[in-house]
Amino acid sequence: MNNHFNLLFSFICLLLYSFFNPSSSLPLCTDLRAPAIPQKPLAFCPYNGRVCCDSSKDLQLQKLFEGMNITDTACSSAVKSILCSTCDQFSAELFKVKSGPRPVPVLCNSTATSENSFCSSVWDTCQNIPITNSPFAPSLKTKAGESQNSNSSLLTDFWQSKTDFCEAFGGNSDKDSLCFNGKQVSLKKNETLQPPNGMCLEKIADGAYLNMVPHPDGSNRVFFSNQPGKIWLATIPEQDSGEAMELDESSPFADLTDDVYLDARFGMMGMAFHPNFDKNGRFFASFNCDKAKSPRCAGRCACNSDVGCDPSKINSDDNKQPCQYHTVVAEFSVNGTAPNPSKAEKAKPSEVRRIFTMGLPFTANHGGQILFGPEDGYLYIMMGDGGSKGDSFNFAQNKKSLLGKIMRVDIDNIPSQEEISDLGHWGNYSVPRDNPYSQDKDLQPEIWALGLRDPWRCSFDSERPSYFICADVGQDQYEEVDIITRGGNYGWSMYEGPFRFKNASADDSMDPIFPVLGYNHSDINKEVGSAAISGGYVYRSKTDPCIYGSYLYGDLYAKNFWAAQENPYNSGNFTTRGIPFSCAHDSPLNCSSVPNSPLPALGYIFSFGQDNRKDTHVLTSTGIYRVVRPSRCNYTCSKETVRAAESPGPSAPSDGHIAKPDFCLVLVLYCLLHLTSFIL
Q1: What span, in angstroms and rounded, lies between the C-alpha atoms of 75 and 184?
Q2: What protein family does this chain belong to (predicted)?
Q3: pLDDT of 224-277, one tens digit each?
Q4: Cα dihedral: 233, 367, 495, 306 (round 10)
Q5: How many Å separate Cα 288 from the centre of its chain?
Q6: What SS3 state is found at 156?
Q7: Which segments of 104-161 does DSSP mark as H helices, in order?
Q8: Which long-range CB contacts under 8 A does 315-324 form with residues at least 24 apart?
Q9: Contacts 24+ apart (CB under 8 A), 436-445
Q10: In the chain, where the domains are located
């Protein structure tokens, strides 16, 4: 029995290790899924509400506990609580360690008083109590290097002292991590958060751009693209420099207009640069094509028999045939245009390969943004429900359809064409093994999350990459912001935001993940009742310290911005308020005003962008605006200090991530410099 248990235990540890990373946060289960309300209350583990166990897992834990044959009541209670911690909605964080997998959660080990240490309490209670198949046994050897006796069952058989035990299993809670104290995790609220008094903007460029991506080299250079399909490389001026951004539209970095079909709802929708762009020169564009005009615009239709859809029965949309237009993700390269990719100022005009191609049944709601995951390096593709009003074909909830989904694919390990055909892929990519289909065989392998209507601008929090935040455009009533998790179902079209949209008894068992933020159409645009959200970023720049840590987002009609603050930290619970905004009187380019209004005339808010300094930019129909110091608009921020403009960020290391300066190295170099000057 011990051998079977050890084998199972090792497998669980390896599984947990494959999922964990040092920055897990917010309510998240060990398989990176969001907690859910079980269909039946848990009978063994005392957890209520959204949890990380269902009744089957609960029964499994009960049998595991009963097999331990613990005779002491106090020790039995402690071990049960430890086993059940895997059901806690924060279990991903409780089990996470930087050094590897854990068989039990991090046990709170207070350094202030041992009386408050749950780890010490477990030792004191259980040290001399036999535990069959103990979860506290070292996996291979003791610190002394001696192999363990498989018949051992006392803590004192495994560990020489309480100190050794708590060094192995203990830890502390702080702002960025959690530990288990024997009870369900309950986060303490932060001090009362003061909402910012306002957001100050400066206009640094004219022109209408849809996408902004920082250069992977970590410098203050960025890429912009517009809807027709051109990409430019530009340098962001220093904060407080008074300079406008120079962008020569006559000399684009890349021109894809021959491949891009442009219309009000179509065009180039996204771009992404490979995390190792400095080495491999690879970048990717997401755009639409018209098969009536381009022979290369050829792919399977998203309306097909696999998803229970017949293209011949779809009513024509704007007098266009179903799947006349396609969504494409294509790969391009700068290799050979410069001594190394980071110095390239022009891309090769020819396409390297098509990563993804899919015909669209209708002409709206096709998303199109693409992003690389900052930790896993995979490509995320945001796809809308296809555009039928109310998602009449239920594409967003259909697990065999890729419409209304966020996909996650591997573009570094591309199978042969024969394998791609056999696997039924939609292009040149492979599927990560830990995609949700590994646990839900009904899902198409590419799917990471489902139940979205039209995701318009997603971003990863640069300080907490587990916060993958997406804005989803609503239909008639509600605009929403979601935290995207592995396998999460965000409800559309059974729900529009938190409101029931369709009444279908077959979907009563659905457990949707409701938005963390949002607003009603009627709240912001009473004249026409229309709205369309534009997702932004968690603000991580030092420029405006009163907005720092807030998630910024806005509405297409450019009359509203919001700053959302999380409280408690890492809880996934946000409070938001509309934030006043204005344009600095000393803006490098003149900011015109809306007639009969003090608001700057932004036109339409298309998107947000973030540079390598984490300064946030707003891309609008009238130009590019940057968030600047609040005092430049006479907004009061008690945290703001007068400072000189910062120098450009350091170049990135070879892995494409921004380098963080090592203080000790800087100090050594400083001393060497002065020593050299003294000798000379």
Answers
A1: 18
A2: Belongs to the PQQ oxidoreductase GdhB family.
A3: 999 999 999 999 999 999 999 999 999 999 999 999 999 999 999 999 999 999
A4: -150
A5: 24
A6: helix
A7: 118-126, 155-158
A8: 317/361, 317/362, 317/363, 317/364, 317/387, 318/363, 320/363, 322/359, 322/361, 322/362, 323/291, 323/359, 323/360, 323/361, 324/290, 324/291, 324/292, 324/359
A9: 436/33, 436/486, 436/487, 439/31, 439/487, 440/399, 440/487, 442/399, 442/400, 443/399, 443/487, 444/399, 444/400, 444/401, 444/402, 444/405
A10: 26-138+151-171, 199-633
Among 566, 385, 371, which Cα is nearest to 473's? Answer: 385
Element (H, E) at 8: helix 2-19
Quickly count helices (H) and strands (E) in the chain. Answer: 11, 29
Two structure tokens written together for 402: 């890729």
Gap between the Cα atoms of 344 and 248, Å rounded: 16
Q: How far apart, in whole angstroms, are the C-alpha atoms of residue 212 and residue 270? A: 9
66 and 128 Cβ atoms separated by less than 8 Å: no
Distance CA(226)–CA(263), nearest Å, equals: 12
Please work out, in degrees rounded to the nearest 5, the angle formed at the alpha carbon of residue 641 by the alpha carbons of 639 and 644.
145
Query: Is 234 in a helix, a strand, or coil?
Result: strand
Strand ranges (E), 308-372: 325-333, 353-359, 370-372
Q: Within a 10 A sphere around the Cβ of 418, how many other Cβ atoms?
A: 8
On whether the CB atoms of residues 85 and 94 are closer than 8 A, the answer is: yes
Angle between helices 118-126 and 162-169 (to 10 degrees): 130
Helix (H, G, I), strand (E, B) or coil at 388: coil
Q: Which residues contact 256 (CB under 8 A, 6 or more apart)?
A: 229, 230, 231, 268, 285, 287, 332
The DSSP line for 352-364 is: -EEEEEEE-SSSS
Please identify which residue in the block is written with the tokens 């296809």: 386
DSSP per-residue letters across 398-439: -TT--TTEEEEEBSSSPPPHHHHHHHT-SSS-B--TTSGGGT
Judged by DSSP in three states, 523 sits in: helix
Q: What CA–CA distance (Å, rounded) separates 352 from 349?
A: 9
| pLDDT < 70: residue spans in the chain | 1-25, 97-101, 111-115, 139-152, 175-176, 190-192, 503-509, 527-529, 642-680
Q: Which of 118, 93, 111 minimizes the C-alpha distance to 182?
A: 118
Q: Given CA atoms 75, 78, 81, 86 in this order, what sign does their dihedral have?
A: negative
| Phi, psi dihedral angles at 342 (to 5 degrees) | -65, -20
pLDDT tens digit sequence for 568-613: 988 999 999 999 999 999 999 999 999 999 999 999 999 999 999 9
Q: For the purposes of burial, counting CB atoms within 10 Å of the CB of 680, is it exposed (0-12), middle (13-18) or buried (19 or more)?
A: exposed
DSSP-assigned states of every residue in 22-76? TT--SS--TTSPPPB--SS--SSS---SSBS--HHHHHHHHHHHHTT----HHHH
Q: What are phi and psi of 92, to 5 degrees?
A: -60, -40
CA 61 distance to own-chain centroid: 31
Tokens read off for 340? 């190394």
How far apart are the C-alpha atoms of 630 and 360, rounded to whole Å?
44
Backbone phi, then psi, for 329, in 5-degree steps? -115, 120
Task: Tell me the torsion sign for CA atoms 553, 559, 560, 561.
Answer: positive
In whole angstroms, what is the distance from residue 443 CA to residue 431 CA?
12
Closest CA to 611 of 462, 469, 496, 492: 462
**Distance, C-alpha 111 to centroid of its chain:** 34
The domain 199-633: what is its CATH number?
2.120.10.30
Query: Read out DSSP for 175-229?
Result: TTB--B-SS---PPP-SPPPPPS-EEEEEEE-S--SEEEE-TTSSSEEEEE-TTS
pLDDT of residue 138: 82
Contact 89, 53 (CB under 8 A): no
Find out whether the peptide bond into 493 is cis, omega within 30 degrees of 0: yes
Closest CA to 283 of 359, 214, 218, 234: 214
